[in-house]
């Protein structure tokens, strides 16, 4: 298919977050939330565990969904283990991650790049290099408190009302990347798309 993943190639979508109920609805877990929504929509049979990661393989879509369970700062090695096992190169690994420096609800897709201060991306770059695509989901900075409080804090009631629409757009971005490639996904995803809360 033009600009998309070649037929038969396996792709991998890695959602970043922290495991456990304590972190389930925190802003830092935006990547987990999007990957969970993909799993639900695709009707994957269930999550399995390998190399400190939960994963679900959708054979029809030739896609592997991954949620590292080693905590954010150590996300790289579990993702690398699955990528190695399934022979998936970095350019076919899309990482979904929260972004403090984007306004809440803004999405930004890139083919590659730096960590931008994100510890989860730093860990992935340490094992894959910088050449993997990533979808950043803006969580916005707070005028009160520090960055740690912001990322590890739960979504506000107002943010929760806007979250389904944000997740819908993120899921659509993943699907476009998977079927049409990174250029098409960037063209559709990037831009001013901050939800009205």
Q: Determine the fraction of residues in helical runs and give it as a percent range.
A: 25-40%
Count of DSSP strands: 7
* Highest-level CATH class: Alpha Beta
Give the termini separation: 38 Å
Query: How many distinct folded domains?
Result: 1
Uncertain segments: 1-7
The strands making up the biggest β-sheet line up spatially as 2-3-4-1-5-7-6
| Category from helices, strands and their pairing | alpha/beta
What's the CATH H-level homologous superfamily? Peptidyl-tRNA hydrolase
Number of helices: 6
Please state the second-level CATH architecture: 3-Layer(aba) Sandwich
The largest sheet is:
7 strands, mixed
Percent strand equals 15-25%
Rg measurement, Å: 15 Å
Would you tell me the overall average pLDDT?
A: 90
Compressed to H and E, one letter per element, the order equals EHEEEHEEHEHHH
Give a structural overview.
A hairpin with a 2-residue loop joins β2 and β3. The protein has a single domain, classed as 3-Layer(aba) Sandwich (Rossmann fold), CATH 3.40.50. By secondary structure, the chain is α/β, with parallel strands linked by helices. 36% of the residues lie in helices and 18% in strands. It is globular. The N terminus is likely disordered. InterPro entries: Pept_tRNA_hydro, Pept_tRNA_hydro_CS, Pept_tRNA_hydro_sf. Hydrolyzes ribosome-free peptidyl-tRNAs (with 1 or more amino acids incorporated), which drop off the ribosome during protein synthesis, or as a result of ribosome stalling. One of its GO terms (cellular component) is cytoplasm.
